[in-house]
Amino acid sequence: MSVYRAFLAFLYYLIVVVGMLILGIPYIIYKGYIRGHKEEITNVCQFFFTHIAFKLFRITIKVEGEENIPKGRKGFVIVANHQSFLDINVIWPAIGNAAFMAKASLWKAPIFGWVISTIGCIPVHKNPRKNAGMGKMVAERIAKGYNFTVFPEGHRTEDGHMLKFQNGIFRMAKEQHFDILPVTLVNTGKILPKVKWAIYSGEVKMVIHPMVKGEDYADKPMGDLRDELHDLIESAMPYKQEELAKANLDAGTGAKEA
Fold first, then answer.
1. pLDDT greater than 70 at residue 77
2. Which of 110, 119, 127, 139 is the most buried (most CB within 10 A)?
3. Cβ(108)–Cβ(92) under 8 Å?
4. pLDDT tens digit sequence for 197-230
5. Is 77 helix (H, G, I), strand (E, B) or coil?
6. Alpha carbon of residue 45 to chain centroid
7. How many angstroms separate the CA atoms of 80 and 230, rounded?
8. Which helix (H) or strand (E) holds 211?
9. Contact 143, 75 (CB under 8 A)
10. What residue segments make up the domains of the chain, in order of their start?
């Protein structure tokens, strides 16, 4: 079974690469260079994952809080937890167009580096000095209609429990005051885990929390904004809800005994 699951995982990644070559590149040329709408290039990702990849692998998405997505679906930063390569794949069909921030080494990959650069993604360098001005860059692209997806944990968790958020995007938010859409992703790590080559069919649950406007946190310290968004996103994780239910049960039992 593990060999079979590993083969399926390989097949999934292969289909994503083939989709990028056959659908993605022609669409980039048409939408980005002929029509001049680079902020809308990832429309093709919505189509590809909804109607091809997820149907082939029997992956479904259940969205809670869809009413919290702005009607125009443009001009904000999505902040989410990070479990799997699948995370960005489900953002596109569920929420809409989005570029993302990623480690700079990805730009060295032939073709892929050009693709992610063209759709508006921004490289994050190990040397903090090279990241200077990134917040302004994000704000300028948001003003042009881009969305950005950011995973502030920095890398994928291995056990499903959220890691601490890093400061980067929250420091940029304090400087540029862009709107933040907090999102909780559940089960992506079980369907396409980080720790082994395997993929499973199943349902991804996405909880979309209310938008946090720039004016809402204008007077809030950066650390408080970071920690509050971490706790909000984590509050919809199953393990956190189980902890809360147990704490309430213990509190109720203690009150009865008293």
1. yes
2. 119
3. no
4. 999 999 999 999 999 999 999 999 999 999 999 9
5. strand
6. 14
7. 9
8. none
9. yes
10. 2-241
Mean pLDDT value of segment 30-40: 93
Fold type of domain 2-241: Glycerol-3-phosphate (1)-acyltransferase (3.40.1130)
- Contact call for residues 44 and 24 (beta carbons, < 8 A): yes
97 with 74: CB under 8 angstroms?
yes
Cβ neighbourhood burial of 220 (10 Å; 0-12, 13-18, 19+): middle
DSSP code of residue 165:
P
Q: Which two tokens stand for residue 257?
A: 């005994």
Using CA of residue 184, residue 187, residue 189, residue 191, what is the dihedral sign? negative
At 202 the pLDDT is: 97
Residues 93 and 210: their CA atoms lie apart, in Å, by: 19
Helix 168-176 with 222-234: angle, nearest 10 deg: 120
| R_g of the chain computed on alpha carbons | 19
Secondary element (H or E) of residue 215:
none
Q: For residue 13, what are the CA distances in angstroms to 130, 226, 237?
A: 31, 33, 26
107-121 pLDDT, tens digit each: 998 889 999 999 999
What pLDDT score was predicted for residue 148?
A: 93
At 19, give phi and psi (nearest 5°): -60, -40
Rounded CA-CA distance 149/79 in Å is 6
- Token pair, residue 156, equals 């994928």
